[in-house]
Specification:
Layout: H1 14-21, H2 29-48, H3 50-60, H4 64-69, H5 71-78, H6 87-105, H7 107-134, H8 151-164, H9 167-187, H10 193-212, H11 214-219
Helix pairs in contact: 2-3, 2-6, 6-7, 6-8, 7-8, 7-10, 8-9, 8-10, 9-10
């Protein structure tokens, strides 16, 4: 390790440790190249302008209309677009949740976890909407709302990291994920049907990750393997004097 990357005490500098956690094409190819694709589509939105961008997003949306006519292509394409101002945020959250899982299970299985959350949570929330539209319980305009993004896949992957954590960290991690789901709901027009559907989708995706992949992670011996470093304590020698006592 180069000398400028370590402290005078012989430890890696925090910048070096942080850089190791960032996704890379060699260590976490799924995370790295997925972020690269999201960057490309984000740039494309700005290049083509608002009107063309709106048409592209409408074609990619997993709304009821698109799922009815082209379910496979809309499920795939909807996961390739995000809000045109949120790419750097996804770099951070992918580095926190997606990349750590990929380092443990590999790119293929990380894709499987991500895809399970994206597809199953979408179908679980949109199929009831499709039934309601068919029965006339919802107006036809609700068949064309914009539903794109990678949040369902992210929450499933973050949920799958919960069993990997040591036991004492699991409950706080689940609470944190549920709070994040609630914050997104409050920030996204609470009370509207789309926000309620999205809230349900995020909650379902979290539990797909936690419960749906727990047994698989346990069979691979990965549950409880991510532990926080504990404070080092020097052992007390049996013949050492007690604090406050006078040594002979």
């Amino acid at each position: 390790m180069p000398t400028d990357t370590i402290t005078p005490h012989g430890r890696p500098r925090w910048t070096t440790r942080a850089a190791v956690l960032l996704p890379g094409p060699g260590t976490t190819p799924f995370t790295f190249w997925y972020l690269a694709v999201l960057l490309a589509t984000t740039v494309l939105q700005r290049v083509v302008g608002e009107s063309v961008s709106a048409e592209l997003l409408a074609e990619a949306s997993t709304d009821a209309h698109n799922l009815w006519h082209r379910p496979v292509s809309s499920l795939i394409s909807s996961a390739l677009w995000i809000d045109d101002s949120g790419w750097l945020v996804y770099v951070l959250i992918f580095a926190v949740a997606v990349a750590p899982l990929e380092r443990r299970v590999g790119a293929g299985w990380t894709f499987a976890v991500f895809a399970s959350g994206h597809a199953l949570a979408t179908l679980a929330t949109e199929l009831p909407v499709m039934v309601a539209l068919r029965e006339g319980w919802l107006p036809p305009t609700d068949a064309h709302w914009l539903d794109i993004g990678v949040s369902y896949g992210f929450f499933a992957t973050a949920g799958a990291m919960v069993p990997v954590l040591e036991r004492r960290l699991r409950l706080p991690a689940v609470v944190l994920l549920e709070l994040l789901v609630g914050v997104i709901y409050v920030a996204d027009e609470p009370g509207s049907l789309l926000s309620v559907v999205t809230l349900a989708g995020h909650a379902i995706a979290v539990h797909i990750g936690v419960l749906g992949w727990w047994a698989w992670l346990r069979r691979r011996g990965l549950t409880g393997t991510l532990r926080l470093p504990r404070r080092r304590r020097d052992p007390v020698r049996p013949d050492a004097p007690l604090a406050g006592s006078i040594a002979p």
